[in-house]
Amino acid sequence: MVVMVIEIITMLFMLATLVYTMGSGTVLENGAYYMGITIPKERRDEEPVKNIKAEYRRSWKIISLVGLVTCLAILIFYDYVSIQMVYILTWFFVLMYAYQNSLKRCGWKLYNWKIEQDWYKGSEDGGKLRRIDTALISSKKKMPVRPYWGVLPMAMVVFCVFRYCAVHFSVVSCSFAACAVMFFVIYFVIARSRTKVYCDDSEINIAINRSVKYEWSRCMMLHSFMAAFIALVLSLGYTSGTQSNGGKMSAYLGYAMIMLCSLGSLAALIAAYVNVQEVKNQAGAVQYYDDDDIYYLTGKKNPNAPRIQEKRVGIGFSLNAGSKGDWIVVGVTMLFTVVLALFLAKYDLADVSLDIASDDSGRKIAYVEAAGEKSQFYLDEITDIELLDELPDMSKNVGYDGTVYNIGSFEVSGYGKCDTYICLKTHMAVVVKTADRVYLFNDETADGTREMYESLR
Amino acid sequence: MIIELNTASDIPIYVQLRNQIVLGIGRGELKEGESLPTVRQMAEDTGINVMTVNKAYGVLKAEGFIEIDRRHGAKICPKVDNGAQYREKVEAELELLITETTLKGIKKEEFMKKCEEIYNRQQIVLV
Asked: What pTM did the predictor assign?
């Protein structure tokens, strides 16, 4: 249940970001861009431009509504975490494609209108001119925040990796640790990215570029810290005690910290954007702009633009995509999610089985198996066996705790550390104690669980 | 100082870079002793090959417009060169230019007028 609530909150969070970015974000005072197209500021109130904007707003509302309905449709896959992951990824990319497609359709109309009105400057400035401000380049190194702010998050990541090796591995924690490293890398990309010449006044150029580099590099550093912190919280197990009374407080504290960090990330993004915008507004009108819309509309890589640049639509930076290298980044992300989904699928499709056989010496041995995990014990080593009518509270040490199955090593209330093979669809379970271990398992039905108990007696 | 390089031009980029820096010195936008970005900084920030920037700086150094210090990078130092060699070079270039313009039908008066116009427009500052 908790997993599903987190997923729905995450999806609503993603939807809200998309709705804002693709709605209000398209007409932000983002330099020369209006709905992703370089339209002179004084021309933005003309009737045809307003009509195109209204047309986009209509499709934006429809897509947002469809996004909200399909977001809640994830409840259909309540029992399958692996399908939920693929669903979230597909849902997000399809929604993004729908928004982008609609925006580009209107973008083409604006672009053609611009050419008709002779506002087009592509032949002169279409990325062929490169402007260099010598004073700006010389002061570039001092603009971003110092890289040593990254020592703390990277130390947290190293500690998490140590825990994965020494204590237990957590897929989710590892994903956040990877994000922390990724944000740290993006920090360096932003710090080293090319400066932009906005006008022929070096002081204004330095002020805007310093603001852009400082704010966004600080933002990435904060993101790196927060992702590393979440990885640490998950690694220390603060969120794995939701089913135990003792662990509830620390679990809720863990979830609260994760939510705070997520909101902190969003706040950092908005703060960076607002601060940069303030400096841009103080600096006055931007004199130069590169009319390279055709690369944006056709999706081709602009050979003369830097690798990353401020977004045309919304907040943040975007890749100068279109090359094979950039598609590799997208492909690896997709592959990572699919592999993770396949890994989790074995748990979703798990089936707890109990087999009793004899070994070479004739001793009877029981095998409990689910999702590739296996435990075994001799029947003559059993010291006690119980049939429980209610599932005890349990929290994960190592393994998988999904919406339907708990498989792995769990801390079980009243029994301590147990090898656990539990299907949450039924409340009954069998507890087998031997001299050195405790085993907790059940079948997905009450009758099946009772049969397991009888066969062991 | 703002330098504009046109990647679609027939003029090599290192020549454009050299010319713009010389023009900047002439107009007083780059003052004596002012630092230029290092070769690496300039190349990284413009997406131009390091060798291209290095070549432009090499030409400027050879012509005496800049001096390159290993510790402090490039600095503007336009030396007044009254040497016979430089005057010969200017003469040769002017000879060629005058011949070309005459062959293209530009008269002497028009040529001189244009020279004066450009000279006045450039607002050359003697350093």
From this structure: 0.72
